[in-house]
Specification:
With 79 residues, the chain is of the alpha+beta class. 33% of the residues lie in helices and 34% in strands. The chain has helices at 17-29, 44-56, and strands at 6-11, 36-41, 60-67, 70-76. Strands 1-2-4-3 form a four-stranded mixed sheet, with helices on one face. A hairpin with a 2-residue loop joins strand 3 and strand 4 (70-76). Helix 1 (17-29) crosses helix 2.
Length: 79
């Protein structure tokens, strides 16, 4: 799959912050550098933690889109 193309999606709605971060971490480890992961969440604290997690690990948050109660974040794997 080409770099920058969405490679996976994880749905972490209704999960705690710890569960959501574990799911996102597991999913992004399977991707090549440059591929993207879409994470769907519905809790503001999970969204905030995902932003911090991604930046601390060198990933880039490309977009954050809100639709009703859900937020979809597209994260590009950095390393």
């Amino acid at each position: 799959m080409a770099a920058g193309i969405m490679a996976a999606t994880v749905d972490v709605r209704e999960m705690t912050c710890a569960q959501a971060l574990a799911e996102a971490s597991h999913a992004i480890k399977r991707l090549a550098v440059g591929q993207t992961l879409d994470v769907v969440c519905n809790a503001p604290d999970v969204k905030d933690d995902l932003l911090i997690w991604a930046r601390e690990l060198g990933h880039a948050v490309l977009t954050t889109k809100m639709h009703r109660d859900d937020t979809t974040m597209r994260i590009r794997k950095g390393r």
